[in-house]
Design goal:
Oligomer: single chain
Radius of gyration: 18 Å
Shape: globular
Strand order of the largest sheet: 6-14-13-8-9-10-11-7
Number of strands: 14
Strand content: 15-25%
Distance between the termini: 20 Å
Order of helices and strands: EHEHEHHEHEHHEEEHEHEHEEEE
Amino acid sequence: MKDLRRPARLAPGARVAVVAPSGPVAEERLQAGLDVLRGWDLDPVAAPHVLDRHRELGHLAGTDADRAADLQQAWCDPTVDAVLCARGGYGAQRVVDLLDWDAMRAAGPKVFVGFSDATTLHEAFAVRLGLVTLYGPVAAGVDFVKNARAQDHLKATLFAPETVRTLTSSGTALAPGRARGVTLGGCLALLATGHGTPHTRPGARGGLLLLEDVGEPPYRVDRWLTQLLRTGWLDGVAGVALGSWEQCGPYEELRPVLADRLGGLGVPVVEELGFGHCEGALTVPFGVGAALDADAGTLTLDAPALR
């Protein structure tokens, strides 16, 4: 696994498009997120269908075709410097095959930010475009709108990425040791259900895998990890960094599952690195070389996330 191409960092006045490739977006929350971006001296623009809701399938922000068109048009617009997801939920799997990846590749590199359901898009951007992407707060999310820690870390990653090259765990080592590799990962359920589909990597060999999830009780976390183990997707992974496990049951019940399923890999595993669905979530780049020190509880990027 090799480092991916890093897009350029943002500068004051940069134009940022906000899209909704997954679930429906609350207008009040979206407007608050756009105000945050304006406060960073950015020029945000909401995609045409960002506030749509599918007529029959209320868990989707509009039709698949409209959600795909918004993402593609934003990416291919030469005046847009970054594309941010408005929220997660579900729906990116229904969009990813509708995108014109040749046209998006021709549009050149730019910043992509999203988390949770956007895991599907992070994989596709890596495979089809060879780009570093940012797994971070969504523009209409509670963290983005109200949490200073999440805001500050994302802003620093966008404007001054050299200042946030090290993430430090608030927990302990699930398995000790040190490792080097290229970062990848996201939401565990999306990685497991995406395995074997188009626009996804065949495995995590040589990578530092960053995992988190929400609303999955311990037995389902066991199921997803077992799926990745049985298919060989985890073969050769260099190390694992765990983020948040909100609403995944008491952590004292989940932790033995994580130790049981990941401990046999024989690689360092660090927990509670502060990214994902937790309050004050940090932004982590995918596609950047990094060093993982499970004993010290740190993940240190070899280079800033953006140029």
